[in-house]
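Lab notes, practical 5.
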Amino acid sequence: MSGSSLDDTALDILFRTARTKTAWTDQPVGDDVLQALYEVLKFGPTSANCSPARFVFLRTPEAREKLKPALNPGNIDKTMTAPVTVIVAYDPQFYEKLPTLFPHADARSWFSGNPDLADETATRNGTLQGAYLMIAARALGLDCGPMSGFDRHKVDQLFLSDQGWRSNFLVNLGHGVAGDPFERSPRLSFDEACVLA
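Output from the prediction step:
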């Protein structure tokens, strides 16, 4: 609702006290939770409602073992023990859905003959949707462990080639073990990161 704001508890859950998790309890994450997660994140804004992100939820030990050869060594243990690992991907042909998603204009024609613009748009907006996934997961009581240490070409070949999608990054989901391995790292101050023009 426009004009309303979240209270401090909600802001803490989503941002201020939330931490990237690398160790997980054995509490499962049901398929119903994953569906509820998507039903929230899908409403995050994208340009022309293009919605290029695609999500592959790896829920079984077999699926994670299939992923294992594509992971950097430092990401193996945290991924093998996570209840769910999400491949946040994007569809390079996202614009084929635009007649349905954005019927107000011939938005498909903006991208169908312009592969550079299509790739830039898919990457930017698919990354936004991956961030929405993490915020929605936290809002639904899950912890997140986003990762970029993996071989994208292997992941694409192992999991995405049939759909023609491309991987962007990975997110482990579940209920993190209490406590964190180290203190929260510093963040830039407003004056360091922002300009008021």
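Observations recorded by the TA: The chain has one domain: 20-173. The beta strands are 53-58, 84-90, 143-147, 166-174.
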